[in-house]
Structure formats: C-alpha cells, structure tokens
Amino acid sequence: MPPRSTPLHGVHEALGATFTEFAGWNMPVRYAGETAEHTAVRTSAGLFDLSHMGEIRITGPQAAAALDYALVANASAITAGRARYTMLCNAAGGVLDDLIVYRLADEEFLIVANAANAAVVSTELAERVTGFDAAFHDASDEYALIAVQGPRAAAILSPLTSTDLTEVKYYAGYPSQVAGKDVLLARTGYTGEDGFELFTAPGDAEDVWRALTESGAEHDLKPAGLACRDTLRLEAGMPLYGNELSDRLTPYDANLGRVVKLDKPGDFVGKQALAAAAEKPTERALVGLTTQQRRAPRHDYRVLDESGAEVGVVTSGAPSPTLGHPIGMAYVDRAVSEPGTALQVDIRGKGVAVEVVELPFYRRNA
Predict the structure, then answer these.
(1) Distance CA 282, CA 356 (A)
(2) Among 58, 104, 69, which Cα is nearest to 84's?
(3) pTM over cut 0.85
(4) For domain 4-51+143-235, is the CATH number 3.30.1360.120?
(5) What are the pLDDT digits (tens) for 262-289?
(6) CATH 3.30.70.1400: does it fit domain 54-141?
(7) Cα distance between residue 178 and residue 173, in whole Å
(8) Which 3 state secondary structure label does DSSP give 117?
(9) Which residue ranges does the record assign to the GCVT N-terminal domain (predicted)?
C-alpha cells in the first residue's frame, strides 16, 4: 500500500516540505530546516501536523470501567474535561503503546494512540471492552490533528477562539471553536513547551492551519516537521515508542511506574506482572547522557564503562540545538546509573566520553 497523506498534504507541499514515510503516512519531516524549527518552538512557536495519530472513542455507561480494565490508568478518576497520560500493557506488563486519554463527558472518552501502534491499540481496546456496557469506535479517519507549541502558543491561538485559554489547564481538553470551526481544544503536547493540540474535522484542517499561520505571523510561528519534534521530545526527556518503550519493557523500566495505578479497584490487564515489577528494582535504568564531543550517541549504540565492558545501549540521541552539545537516553546497568558517572559510547569503533545526567535535559520556565 502506498503511504497515506494527511488532509494538510497540499499545504505542506506549498510550503516546500521534505517528506518521509512514517508509520504508513507521508509526513513532512522538515521545511526550512529542523534546527530553525526546533528553535522556533523553544523561543516562539511551531505548527505541527499530527493527523497521522490514531483516535478511538469509548462510550457508554461502563466506558470508564472498561478503560479501568484495559489501561494502567484509573480512568474512573478522570473528570470530564481533563486528560491523562497512560499506557496500554500486555499481560506480562510490557508496553504496547503510551496514550493520552481525554474524558469528554461522563460516558465518553477519546484515546489518542501513536501512529505506529494505532492498529494494535484499536484491536486491543476493541477486545478489552467486550463484556462491558460500552461501545468501541475507531474514529481515526474522523479527525485531523494540529498542534501549536511554544511560549507564544497561547498568544497565537487566543484571537481565534472564544475559549479563555487562561482557564485551560495543562492536560485539559474541551469542545471549542477555532477560526469558526468546531474543535476539541487540548492543552497537551510532546515538545516540553506550553502548547495546544486541536482535533478538527479533516475538511476543516486547512482553514484552521491557515488561520493559525496568519495569527502567528507577528509571533515568528514556523511550520515544524517530524525531525524537530524528535529533538524537542528528546531534550524534554519524553519517551518514544520503539526506543525507550516496547512490549519487552514495563513502565517501571522507563521510570514511568507512576502512571500504573495498582490501587485502583478491580483487575486490569497486566496487573499481576506490574505489581511484581513494582516490588523489585529493574536491572537497567533509563538515564540521560551528555557529551562535549562533536559526535552524538545514536539509537542502538553500545554504552561502555571505563574498562570498555558493555553496560548498556543508547535508545535515542542527537545534537541538542538548545543546549549546544549532543545528548542521548540509554538503558544502562543500575550500578553505573548515578548522575555524574563517566561512561563511553561506542561510536563507529571509538569510545566517546559521556556523562550520566538526570532527565530531562531541558525544562521550560513556568
């Protein structure tokens, strides 16, 4: 099958985007350049097309109970208008995907899945809600998703909506209008900056994008592609499925045990395995690595101790535009996981000095 195009493909072509195939989609990877786009998100704002993500609706009297069973979160405790970061795990506790769950109403939830895992999430949720008085609907084709991220995001969005953005808390989402179009307006993102994600009808996406572009002209808003999205999330220490998360790793491996609600009422998929994982330290720890050398650690590069013995593997790495030096995340033996520990990364047969640091590498000013 040829890769699918988002409803904004024509806009990206007109902007001169470079495209790449990602998770079965033809997506813009960069426009003028990923460093400029990254910097715009950190200093002003960037505009992203995320329409490749998967969206699933669970509705009905037992929608919350069904999600309590299906996910590691306590969905029943989410109030209408709020959202929660959570995970879908298998029976062994391995992560099948990390998700955001929005509670739109008492009996209505929207689950947003990563594009690469959307089919798996859809299949699993459809099976797991069986037996509950709840309806499953894969609504992925009914949404386009646009994100405006950065310190100027609210200033750009505010003139286009009657919603008082000062009242929209982090991880909240409400029905609203932007540029006269119905949207779900959420204060969420994957960049480490303040920002908003706008779920629109596919046919409204171009109008919303153009309105944001016009409003953002005086704020140095730039269209931003997948390349800078990756370096932004890396600086913010946010995990990427297939790198820091997989079905062979539990949330505890990735330092995300806090999202597992073992004390919620009833059973849920993976509970027994996750309860056991919570009781014992993991053999390896997820850490940050920095280096003052020019070459960056990259995914799957070996991490070595000072004697040259292998003690871990890099999961993500890149030069950091914000910090001015290369950074990476890695799973390393717990014995060498303390911040300040000197290690090496094998980069093309040469041991490059790195230092273990706490995550995240970057925190925005509140």
Answers:
(1) 17
(2) 104
(3) yes
(4) yes
(5) 999 999 999 999 999 999 999 999 999 9
(6) yes
(7) 13
(8) helix
(9) 8-264
